[in-house]
């Protein structure tokens, strides 16, 4: 919530600036025009008006940020349609790719990258890294990174471990940051789009990370409806790095 603290400090500074001006100039907030006022007094009142306008502008509420993420892709059947919908809505998302799927669908990976979405690592074979050796876990992650790098020319910095199970000791050897989630509608368990949508939009709050999958038609339909509803509520969709680094 550091961004919110900075925003409050900015507002307080603006208020203090205005207060100091009032005391220094010893004039009221009346800013009506009067052609007979001396030039100095008019300039002083103009300064106060500018200060008030500055404070008003800083007090405008910033849109609450939220991230929508997709696991297990890219899918030749679903990811393209999802990308079409996100592009139409001018929304950037985060995609945690399975390495073998990325290797089989290089054009989709390239499109994800070129359209400004954040690409993350989801292991090569969707394995529970807590149930394999450290060497196997590293290979799963590094092989996925290599598959993505060969297409985009950029190494992957973020990792979503399958099932949300992460081994912290891997952070000592691998330059990836684990990203979990705060809202999981379990979209992989149902084809009921209304159910998926309701679970997300009723829970959504600022800085939440939504988990969905871009390998089910119902999930794609739900995702686009979720975006429409939350944008209508004033949310701004960002990639997860913007939430983590803000």
From TrEMBL:
What Enzyme Commission number(s) does the record list for this chain? 3.5.1.104
Instruction: Kindly indicate where the leader peptide sits in this chain.
Output: none
Pfam families, A to Z = Polysacc_deac_1
Q: Does the keyword Metal-binding apply?
A: yes
Superkingdom of origin: Bacteria
User: For this UniProt entry, what's an example GO CC term?
Assistant: membrane
What region holds the NodB homology domain?
A: 64-238
Alphabetically sorted, this entry's keywords are: Hydrolase, Metal-binding
Q: Which biological processes are named by the entry's GO terms?
A: carbohydrate metabolic process
Please give the Gene Ontology molecular function terms for this protein: hydrolase activity, acting on carbon-nitrogen (but not peptide) bonds; metal ion binding
* Record PANTHER family: CHITIN DEACETYLASE 1-RELATED, GLYCOSYL TRANSFERASE-RELATED
Q: What is this protein called?
A: Peptidoglycan-N-acetylglucosamine deacetylase
State the organism of origin. Clostridium scindens (strain ATCC 35704 / DSM 5676 / VPI 13733 / 19)
* Species classification: Bacteria, Bacillati, Bacillota, Clostridia, Lachnospirales
């Amino acid at each position: 919530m550091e961004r919110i603290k900075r925003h409050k400090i900015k507002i307080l500074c603006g208020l203090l600036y205005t207060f100091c001006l009032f005391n220094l100039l010893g004039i009221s907030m009346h800013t009506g025009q009067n052609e007979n006022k001396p030039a100095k007094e008019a300039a002083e009142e103009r300064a106060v008006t500018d200060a008030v306008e500055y404070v008003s502008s800083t007090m405008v509420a910033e849109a609450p940020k939220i991230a929508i993420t997709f696991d297990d892709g890219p899918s030749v059947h679903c990811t393209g349609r999802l990308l079409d919908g996100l592009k139409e809505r001018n929304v950037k998302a985060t995609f945690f790719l399975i390495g073998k799927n990325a290797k089989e669908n290089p054009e989709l990976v390239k499109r994800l990258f070129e359209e400004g979405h954040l690409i993350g690592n989801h292991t090569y074979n969707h394995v529970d890294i807590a149930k394999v050796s450290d060497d196997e876990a590293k290979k799963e992650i590094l092989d996925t990174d290599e598959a993505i790098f060969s297409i985009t020319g950029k190494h992957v910095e973020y990792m979503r471990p399958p099932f949300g199970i992460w081994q912290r000791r891997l952070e000592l050897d691998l330059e990836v940051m684990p990203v979990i989630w705060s809202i999981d509608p379990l979209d992989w368990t149902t084809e009921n789009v209304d159910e998926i949508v309701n679970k997300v939009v009723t829970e959504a709050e600022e800085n939440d990370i939504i988990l969905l999958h871009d390998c089910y038609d119902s999930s794609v339909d739900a995702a686009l409806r979720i975006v429409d509803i939350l944008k209508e509520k004033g949310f701004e969709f960002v990639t997860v790095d913007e939430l983590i680094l803000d």
